[in-house]
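Recall the central idea of this unit: under ordinary conditions, the amino acid sequence of a chain determines the structure it adopts. In this exercise we apply that idea directly, starting from the sequence alone.
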Amino acid sequence: MPFYPDIPSQAVTPINTQAFLGLNRGLSIADGEMADMLNMSSDHYPVLSTRQARAAASFQVEGGGQDVYPDGIDGMLGTDKLIVCSGEHVYVDGVQHALTLSADEAMRPKHLVSMGAYVCIWPDKKYLNLANPDDYGQMGDKWSAADGQVITAMMCRRDGENYDTDEITVSAEAPAEPEDKQLWLDTGGENDVLKQYSKAQQDWAVVLTTYIKIQATGIGKGLKEGDVVHLSGAAVAGGTAPAAAGEDTLSFPAEGFSLYSSFKTYGSPPRSSTPTIAEQTKTITVSGIPDGAAVTGAVAKFKTGSPMYGKQLLTMNGVSFGYGGNAEIPVEVTGNGDVSLKFRFQSGTNTTVLGEHGGSISISNLVLEVTYAVSGAADEDSKQIEALNTTNTVYGCGDDYIIVAGLLHKSLTLAGTLVRDLKIPDLDYICEANNRIWGCSYATVDGTLTNEIRCCALGDFRNWYRFEGTSMDSYVMSVGSDGRFTGAYSLQGIPLVFKEGYLHKISGTQPSNFTLNTVKCRGVQDGSWRSLAAVNEVLVYKSRQDVMVYDGSPPYAIGEKLGTARLYEAVGGAYRDKYYFNARDDQMRWHTYVFDTSKQLWHKEDELSIRHMANADGTLYLGYNMGALLAVGVDGAEESFKWMAAFGKFGFQDENQKYLSRFNVRAQMGRGSTMKLEIQYDSDGKWVDMGTVRCTQLKTFTLPVVPRRCDHCQVRISGTGMIKVYSIARLYEGGGDGHA
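Accordingly, the structure predicted from this sequence is:
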């Protein structure tokens, strides 16, 4: 009886996946990782589950519908309330606020920041008070004098009480026998100084700060004590503004006249003669030189050349002039602006006879040229008023007056050119830290590039130019790094300002110890400023190359599992331990990714174009699709959504051919949910449908697979509704090498 050798059966190898590790778009991924997915989450890790159903926000939007803003969404901010900017309107928890904004395209998007109960909005530079609906408006305030408006300025005390007209003595010498507390405005030094006499000290003490009250209807309306305003156009009424510094020349044609000379003849030839001399003095008055200008030179000359000929001789002010002499002669302008010109003319000499009837000369094209220099000097009153054309602290105010620091000799009426401006700077990006709003600006202003980081005064978002040397001051610093700013955020009370290649961190508690620390690193991508979001105690953002985390040490990347596709215009938000992240790729497709910071896993949710995110009172709001709004973290009645999970390519661990023979999935599905299994062999791009199941109980589904010999394969499950996948078991048999 013959014996045949046993042919061993091929070993059946089970692979059971019980921990699902999230998204990984790399070429080689671990078991349990997914190459692609849709609407999956780490909520029940290690179980693979669909994301939580989203809800419509719980308020009705005025003028729109359920959570739909009629003019789109231009900006969002979350506090204990949700603030949304849409077109010209601001909504607080869906209720339209009275504050209006600009809907111009150049004024979009809106940057919002909260400081206490206040919400400030750039680039409109407006604010609203969440605790007081009647408190809102423009952060800055500008007032200009109306035509014919009466404006007066006078010295006053700190409390605004005016000095009596004879209360201050104005003189260069101290008053004789002064009384106690008598005031003296000392004008004898380089700078005028107000002094007060102390009888006890027998001496004059300098009054360190003096005050001016400027009165005009409406000039102080909207201001408060401590505001810093910029004054411009301050000038004395009826006064002549000083000319700009420089040099100029004026020309004065002289009135034409003639000079005659004759000869007295003696004997017969050879005759001798004695010439007579003609003399005349002319005065030219100089005009048109600005007040305060200094004459630097004056010359007399003929416009078209000398009118003389032969041996005629003309002198002016004793200097030979014209033919055979000087082409022009310096002259002196007297204090009253007159120039005296003395002309002396003779035709011939004792030895040269030109004729018996003498000669004449017509002076008709003589010109006096006067050069003057202007230093810009003005009279004392004008100088004192014009000194106010700068930033000024308001020490007191009412609707119709403001009190600023300054000094005057007397009460004055001002010209109607006065402008008072409470300025708010243009800022690219903003954040709030330690009761100050911080901002940055990279722009060309009046031909000068500004590359600055600044903050407002402590607790006062309306004052950005208060520099008085106190801890309450505002602050500004120039930055040496190159390029535009790309974002700003406050982390743990520290303001952080980004460029694409830099992180600027400002440490310190007050202007005297503010310090700028610059780190060259992967900063925020240009256009992705909305990706900045704090998850627990760390900051996450999109850089040009990656998704980054900053926790106080140098930023590090966490987005390597998202693959190599370039992403732009990123928007980010935080919900519990998760960072929500939406961006577009080069094909203009939008993707929503979620990073679970506690589990260090990425998942992909949907492909909506979400342009704004804000966490308000524990709920993350997503703004997309021309004003629609959804909420994460609220149980909602979202319609059944599609989901999908595509696992990595299976079989690379074994170089032989193989057969996939069975598929076991342990899962629990919600009511009405479905699950479909598909397989793709050898990366041929074709997904083979292996069946669809429906069930609401937790159980194991066995899906038989028609064996097909392959080098590798990929499994995809998909469906609709809610599902939890506890495990996936695959059975495969070896099939020999690739040539069997």
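Residues 158 and 505 are 40 Å apart (CA to CA).
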